[in-house]
Amino acid sequence: MGDRFKLPLPIWGSAMDGVVDVEFAIAMGKLGGVAVLNLDGVHTRYQDSAPIIKRIAEADKSQINALLKEVYREPVKPNLIAERINAIKAAGVPCAVSTIPARAEERTEVVQKAGADVLVVQGTVLTARHSSQSYHQLSFEHLVRACEIPVVVGNCVHYETALELMDTGIAGILVGVGPGAACTTRGVLGVGVPQVTATADVAAARDEHMRRGGMRVAVITDGGMRIGADVCKAFASGADAVMIGTPLAGAEESASKGFNWGMATPDPNLPRGTRIHVGTKATLHEILLGPARVDDGSQNFAGALRSALGVCGAHDITEFQHVEMVVAPSITSEGKVFQQAQHVGMGKS
């Protein structure tokens, strides 16, 4: 996103209520990344959201969908939006917030006045030409003009769609439909594109947009990454940054201490997600920056990325985006007979 928003660590925390609360956003910001706070989540619906998160984490799996619908019926409170942003900014770290498209315009003023650095407008799939008979259509061009801060939109998996969105003046675009560990969109709607393909297509749209004279739009691969290798593949496919959720749910600092559920999970009409338990695995520092205490790639994502750049002869991420890639389904199992038999290293899963 150019000089408007730079991160020492190109990793975003997904706007999942079970992961990102104010304290988590502060902790991730201090490590060089940014965690996105969900403005449609429980943290802006309840003054004290901790008991709500605890109820969700402890609920029986047969009751979880009904419970989620119940707790998300509480209305979002504008004063809590400002309060949460103020708390994050008071800690001296970047603040990114996420809103559904239908509420983006009305929240622009409070978000900017409170001091947020980035506004993320996020839905299952967004386009520059969405039409609806039931509600006012959001114009991304108007929204971008009304915002003094960068606007990131998503999600998208298609070249032409991405190109049209970039032409509206957005600063970043989220890539991915349904790859997340807690998401069921691909099962409920039958819609999705593998993340490497989607990232490569949207990155190609970014390059074409620049060729036509447009500014560089940050391509952010969102979801489907479990270990360092997945993160590295996203950058090699053309991503400028990645957004992860479930790996961070396993951090000691996560809001739920080991649980995760998607933003569409509590949808009152058609839930497209589920609550998953990942357990508490490590500190946030160990997951993002190391040192890794395990050998399965689930810790020290930054170290994995640096090493991958070196192995591939790339001096920076821009060079790494142009490395050659091959489709090799068996590459993680080739020669790993003993690891698989003994359930160690890459044979654990």
Explained architecture:
It contains 15 helices and 10 strands. The protein is of the alpha/beta class and about 350 residues long. The protein has one domain (about 1-345): TIM Barrel, CATH 3.20.20.70. The strands form 2 sheets. The chain has an 8-stranded parallel barrel with strand order 1-2-3-4-5-6-7-8, surrounded by 5 helices. Helix 1 (about 20-30) packs parallel to helix 4 (about 80-90), helix 7 (about 160-165) packs across helix 9 (about 195-210) and helix 10 (about 230-235) crosses helix 13 (about 300-310). The chain is globular and about 55 Å long. The mean pLDDT is about 90.
Keywords:
single chain; 349 residues; alpha/beta; TIM Barrel; eight-stranded parallel β-barrel; two-stranded antiparallel sheet; 15 helices; 11% strand; globular
Strand content: 5-15%
The tally of domains stands at: 1
Which structural class matches the secondary elements? alpha/beta
| Major sheet size, sense and barrel closure | 8 strands, parallel, barrel
CATH superfamily: Aldolase class I
Estimate percent helicity: 25-40%
Please, what is the average pLDDT?
92
Radius of gyration: 19 Å
